[in-house]
Amino acid sequence: MDLDIGEVARRSGLPVSALRYYEEKGLIAPNGRRGLRRQYDAGVMQRLALIALGRNAGFSLDEIGRLIPAGPGDAPALDRKMLAARADELTSTIQELTVLRDALRHTAACRAPSHAECPTFMAALSHPGRIAPFRGKRKLTK
Amino acid sequence: MDLDIGEVARRSGLPVSALRYYEEKGLIAPNGRRGLRRQYDAGVMQRLALIALGRNAGFSLDEIGRLIPAGPGDAPALDRKMLAARADELTSTIQELTVLRDALRHTAACRAPSHAECPTFMAALSHPGRIAPFRGKRKLTK
DNA sequence: GTTCCAGCTCAAGTCGGCTTGAGGTCAAGG
DNA sequence: CCTTGACCTCAAGCCGACTTGAGCTGGAAC
């Protein structure tokens, strides 16, 4: 029992335009068509979940495409190396965010007359190498 | 002893084009000009550090502009409420990323013949509400 | 049999954060 | 004097991930 694109949109929370876009990018594909209409089988939902997972992990759609080629017989074949690498990156991202959050929290709470006089704040400011933005493609996710 | 834009670029790691762009957005301003050339005082470095901090925390340049108006006498006046709110958001972002990283790591290591047979993987997939992308402006930072 | 609705295609637009390019200015050095 | 190099302005372009709009189709309901 196949699903109309609208139904997939409803179930996934993604706009139909995004679904068509994903198709264009080769991330999903309808089972076939009924007339003009794309018909999806229920498995697409899992694939979308997987894509979302990837997006949340900071992969671009192109990377996701490389990461989860539709394996033969529909089980996505994941690239374990890429996953492990991203896991490591996430670890350092998490680390940075944690430092940042603590600094933010402290700064918000700190009652020094001027932030310039708060050592925690100043320490966060002079944290080495933090001025130039990440040059990576990490995005998380908009 | 004032700095040329090129010197600021060198010290901060930011391209000059980005510095001019920041100026256009009202985030930094030269001390004055010598001929046509912008001259910055050393304090700009701290301000850039602050901006970088904000970007890393996921604020847009516009938000940063609102967050750190150049206080009277050059000490930036931070909006403590906004900071606290973002700290809370960071906490949940961190939480999500941690779950994700663990799932990734596990998936990479897992030797089940197909990922479909790995319960950890499947659990990550069906984690509720994770399909639709965040609609916020969070970006982290590119 | 016409009015709808959901779907279709293709091209163009949007947004943030810059970058790039063309063309101009200016001080210092050979 | 003329070149070089660092800077200047302004307009346009770029990237990813979609969205929007115009104009079309095809089945179903009245």
Automatic annotation (TrEMBL), chains A, B:
CDD domains to which the protein is assigned, alphabetical: HTH_MerR-like_sg6 (cd04781)
UniProt keyword list: DNA-binding
PROSITE patterns associated with the record: HTH_MERR_2
UniProt GO molecular function: DNA binding; DNA-binding transcription factor activity
Domain HTH merR-type span(s) in chain numbering: 1-70
Protein name: DNA-binding transcriptional regulator, MerR family
InterPro entries the record matches: DNA-bd_dom_put_sf, MerR-type_HTH_dom, MerR_fam
Species of the source: Paractinoplanes atraurantiacus
